[in-house]
Amino acid sequence: MSYLWRRWRDQITPAGKVLVGGVCLAAVGGISVELPIYQIFCALCLVLGLAEITGVFCYPFVELTAEFPDRAVVGEPVSGAVTIRNRSRWRPIFDLSVGFMGLPRSVEQLDADRTVRFLAPSESVRVTVTVRFARRGLCELPPLRAFSTFPFNLVRTGQRRLAVKPVLVLPAFPSLTRVDVPLRSLYQPGGAALTAKVGESL
Length: 202
What we know:
Blueprint: H1 2-11, H2 14-29, H3 36-57, E1 62-67, E2 71-73, E3 78-86, E4 93-100, E5 107-109, E6 116-119, E7 124-133, E8 137-139, E9 144-148, E10 157-162, E11 167-170
Parallel strand pairs: 2-11
Antiparallel strand pairs: 1-3, 3-7, 4-6, 4-9, 5-7, 8-11, 9-10
Helix pairs in contact: 2-3
């Protein structure tokens, strides 16, 4: 059950989940092969199967290196630099993305939909991954993953992962632009200066 859940969460894109839902609805209504909805069921299954097969033949072989800050502030975006290198010498990669799968609820990736449309063989590209933390403390991030959604943006192919060091999230402190400190007057009526030294009289 955990394998199916991880596959549903990590391998299927939001568009793919909509397609799977359509397949399930068509399967319920397609009791007879003579009904039009049965033909819709077959067409949706064909599209999903074609996406899976194409993903196998266009599997991305990449190498990842990343530089992430070790500290962040609650509510403020923090970015890390990720370098992706295509390890293949003859096959390009299409629709390549990097991101975190299974993030805690207190962490949000702000650029999860960013995609590198084309990466030539043996070439490298540098991208940024931006996250935002909603809770302070030491946050353990899941491994960073590179994947391709080619050709229909229905499934994610690619299992290359990179461990990321924990991030210490600090509380947010508002900056002080002005400080008002009440001061007592240094002079008393008549012009004599006030003093705080012991033994002196006014």
